[in-house]
Structures are given as C-alpha cells and as structure tokens.
Request: fold
Amino acid sequence: LAGPATAQTGAEAFARGCGGGCHQSETRVLRAIPRGSDAERRAWIEAFLARHPCHCDDMKPAILDYLTERSSR
Reply:
C-alpha cells in the first residue's frame, strides 16, 4: 500500500505533488509546455520543476515523466 508521499502512477504523483490546491487540473500546465521533441519538452519541464515549488520533491521524477508523456498528445 502506498504511503502519503508515495505515488503509484505519474497521474497520482501530479495530483499529490502539484494538485494540492495549486493545480487542480493538468490542462493549464500542459498548455504552458512548449511544443517540440520529447527531449526538448522534457528539458523544459525539468528546468521548470527545478525552480518550481512542489509539495513532494521526491515525486518530481514521476511528475517529469508524466508531463513529458502527456504533453506529447
């Protein structure tokens, strides 16, 4: 069973790390991510997360993977 700081999926990591009153939906976050290759989007998201507060810093890698994948759509 997952503890309070442990997410099972990227969506859960986003909900717990970003959705705690700040970003109820990923829609606005996804719109802010510039178009480009997976590597370009991932680098942009990684730089953004490095300077952006997150309720659970240990979830940032899962959030990075999740937003990179979701922004490709």
Remarks:
- The two ends are 31 Å apart (CA to CA).
- The mean pLDDT is 85.
- Residues 38-51 form the longest helix (14 residues).
- Residues 41 and 47 are 10 Å apart (CA to CA).
